[in-house]
Write a structure and sequence with these properties.
The protein is of the alpha/beta class. 32% of the residues lie in helices and 18% in strands. The protein has a ten-stranded mixed beta sheet with strand order 7-1-2-6-3-5-4-8-9-10, sandwiched between helices. Strands 11-14-12-13 form a four-stranded parallel beta sheet, with helices on both faces. β9, α8 and β10 form a beta-alpha-beta unit. It is globular and about 60 Å long. The termini are far apart. The protein binds threonylcarbamoyladenylate and magnesium ion.
Length: 325
């Protein structure tokens, strides 16, 4: 066993919290059976207590202990997509404490693909409860350097596993209702899932207390600069308009050119959607490092992985966080 894994297991067993890599984003983990450590996660993140956590497993048999009932649809999806970036919401068993599920009768479970995450769960011998390793409302961390900068001394250990492969949080599907619902889009797309779940519907975006998934009503993914989405048709004139103002601008484009201007201090051009997704949160952090006032990001079609990118972009640009706030 890797020394760092042994160390992480030891810390978790003593009630600590450990940040670890997954193929989506980094997670901030505690032992499933340790309500005090789970409480620490909420307080480190400043996470609202009504927002439940995901339980990470390394073996399909662990699911049977967490869920009261494992429907055929869950077996089918798990067989195809686990380990991988898909989270399934099922009816919870009594072995899952309400500190994990924020009082809900359901539990969200996924089997991550990153080898360090799997090894950690296997060596611990029990599931690891983990939200994304970021302060509540902030962009998620896709590299251990982001975790250290954002959460640093608040966590007991950060396992270093390189850059997250997909860069956006997992796709979340609620299988406890008919028809099943997509609660959070991710890199496993609606189109792909529909081949397995033809009835799948998209949860409406809502900020009210009746949100389909508790996490959907909270502020999310917001860097410390104003994020403005720009449509392709209005690209050239919108960028030109902003460059006339005395502001530091960042621009993220999808396969098109960015004009030259002394006010544009950060330029990112992505040539495919996977790349756009993979780099989105690190682009946000770079904008902060470059002291960008306004980040202009290109809207893209909601097809395929575009749905997940547009979901994160629209949440990041919501409430228009004020300039330099
Ligand atoms: O990719 C990921 O899912 C990452 C890595 C670390 O696994 N984790 C992650 O966790 O993004 P978090 O806590 O940032 O997001 C979990 C989402 C939230 O929107 C939460 O509301 C939702 O899953 N969720 C958790 N349990 C739920 C439940 N029982 N019913 C409905 N939604 C649930
Ligand atoms: Mg999160």
């Amino acid at each position: 066993m890797l020394k760092s894994i042994a160390n992480a297991v030891d810390i978790l067993k003593r009630g600590g919290v450990v940040a670890f890599p997954t193929e989506t984003v980094y997670g901030l983990g505690a032992r499933l059976g340790d309500p005090a450590a789970i409480q620490k996660i909420f307080s480190i993140k400043g996470r609202p207590s009504d927002n439940p956590l995901i339980v990470h497993i390394a073996d399909f048999n662990q699911l049977k202990l967490l869920a009261r009932h494992v429907p055929a649809s869950a077996k089918k999806l798990a067989a195809r997509f686990w380990p991988g970036p898909l989270t399934l919401v099922l009816k919870r068993s009594a072995s899952v404490s309400s500190s994990v599920t924020a009082g809900l009768d359901t539990v969200a479970v996924r089997m991550p693909k990153h080898p360090l995450a799997l090894e950690l769960i296997r060596e611990l011998g029990e599931p690891v409860v983990a939200p994304s390793a970021n302060l509540s409302g902030r962009p998620s961390s896709t590299h251990y350097r982001d975790v250290i900068r954002e959460l640093g001394n608040k966590v007991d250990l950060v396992l270093k596993g390189g850059k997250s492969e997909s860069g956006l949080e997992s796709t979340v599907v609620n299988l406890t209702r008919t028809p099943p619902r997509l609660l959070r889009p991710g890199t496993i797309t609606m189109e792909t899932l529909k081949k397995f779940l033809p009835e799948l519907t998209l949860a409406a975006k809502s900020k009210s207390g009746s949100a389909a998934s508790p996490g959907m009503k909270h502020r999310h993914y917001q860097p410390r600069c104003k994020v403005i989405m720009v449509k392709r048709e209005q690209w050239a004139e919108t960028i030109a308009g902003w460059t006339k103002k005395n502001l530091r601008l960042g621009v993220i484009a999808y396969d098109q050119r960015i004009p030259t201007s002394k006010n544009i201090v950060l330029k990112k051009i992505h040539h495919d959607k996977r790349d756009y997704a993979r780099s989105l949160y690190s682009d946000f952090f770079q904008a902060e490092k470059s002291r960008v006032d306004v980040l202009l990001v290109e809207s893209i079609s909601k097809k395929g992985i575009g749905l997940a990118i547009m979901d994160r972009l629209s949440r990041a640009s919501e409430n228009g966080s004020s300039l330099r706030s």
